Amino acid sequence: MTYTHLVSKKSKSSIHFHFRSIIPKDLISYFNEKTVFQISLIGVRNGESLLLSLRLKRIVQQLYSDIRSGMKNLSLEDIKEILRIEVRKSILHSSHISEGHNEIYDSMRKIESREKIYSREINIRKSLLTNSNEVKESVDKKLQTILESLEITLDKQSLNYKKLRSSFIDLYLLRFKWIKDMMDESGRTDDDFRREVDEKLDMNLFPELVGQTQSQVQQVTVNQEVHTDQKVSSLSKHQSTSISVGIDKFISEKYKLTSKSEMMMRTHIEMLIEEFGDISLGKLDRGMCVKFKDDIRKLPRNRSKIQQYRNLDFHEQVSLNVDEKDRISTTTVNNILGYVSSFMKWSRINGFVEVNFFEGMKLKKQIRQRDERDRFTEKEIKKIFQKHNYIEFTEVENHKYSNYWTPLISVFSGMRLNEICSLYLDNIIQEKVNGRKKIWCFNILEEPDRPDKHLKTLSSKRVVPIHDTLIDLGFIEFVELLKKRHTNRQRLFQELKYGEGSYIRNVSYFFNKKYLPLLGLKTDKKNFHSIRHTVVDHLKQRLVDISFINELVGHHHGNIDLDRYGKGYTTDIIYNKCVKKINYETSHTRGIDFKSLKMDWKKIISNRVW
Hints:
The chain is α+β, with helices and mostly antiparallel strands. It has 25 helices and 7 strands. The chain is globular, with a radius of gyration of 29 Å.
């Protein structure tokens, strides 16, 4: 398939891509009689060039549409000077951000820093897609201040003002690319960034940098054949919708999607474009979908991270035919197929395709689902919660409360890490049973006034009785002391910071990257989530009914009548039939000594400097 908006340029032994747009004849006068303009995609991974060019194409088409609305002219030189200043500020801003992140030597934290940058970029791009007026209003306020300081009349309806605003938005988006380039220590200079702006905006902002002979533009043809039994003329208007437009619409309808989840979803579904190009959704047929499944199975692990793979496009990576041990896992393949199938199901419902050819296409796994993540043995549980190890390395005496309590809460409840980390103090409640006795519980729910709290599934909403061992360790005393000592405190673990849609980052890093390796227990299949598997298996071995276990840990029952119509078990039933059964032993006569972990909470909390 040929893409007129994506062209290649050869420089010595390498080839890089440019985005090209042919200016419509009726608009040439607005572009100083230019008939074409280009934007360099140097620095963009070859496999991503096509996707980026498609996004740029949509932006440019919108610009042409704005111009045709018949707006007035404004001073081009004024616009150039404003943009030059903004470029200088953008470069300084990017350098400042990148230097701050490059001071982080820990590789895990560097990855997290990159995720923050990506998250901010996604939020802006999402706003441009779903609420562009809000973004424009924000830019308008900034431009109003600038234009007033230059004594320039503000005319928001003029052509050049809209061009200026559009250029500002482009610069903001370029900032993220520059920051990532700097964090990667790409060696690019400030002048390289200025050239990139000139190539993107085609306004000759920095004529002093012009001096290199441009290579002749060559037409690039995407290296694949698209086979389809349908003719373009036979497609309906909806079926003619491109994959990229469909993806944007699909994601925009997702409710409460975190930036991390959106990044994962978009990356997986856009592999369709890497495989077939941005074709009409209606052109996809069964043969193409089977080919897609076969090809992604051949992809190497970490294809966008490992140097030998990351500069190759999708088809080049597939053609490497790497050893099976170096390919993406069956789980990853199924995750990709799952996202794509969900997208195609939505496309079928909305009339973009007639059939979801990806339905039922997931691979059978060679291992049982229950074996995918190892549980901890009783001896490993004993080692994890051994007093000498646990007290010292959780640093509870230095007020690392979350490191101390989260594994203990999980091992006596099976709660997910984020469910524990996102608890508020008022989520610790007492429930009456039989009208007399009260049981302390964790109330796990989503709350409208607390957008930081979200549940994985509908069945995750539940009330979990607190195990007697946690109460013996002083958990309720700990909660009451927090309330008394700091009356404005809302969350149980206030020290945890929110990021990427959860509070788990610090605890996950402590337990998975530091504590388990220190104990010699870390494997590919063992992490904090293994505690949850441990609880489930522990109760199964004690012949606890699976419906009680599902209720405790927030799994659906797998029975449509129970899931849809069955009322949840009462708190006292879950407490007596399930929670009380959690009793870890290394042998029939030797229980694990958790009570040795009891702390003097009054002393620890009173010594805390708030």
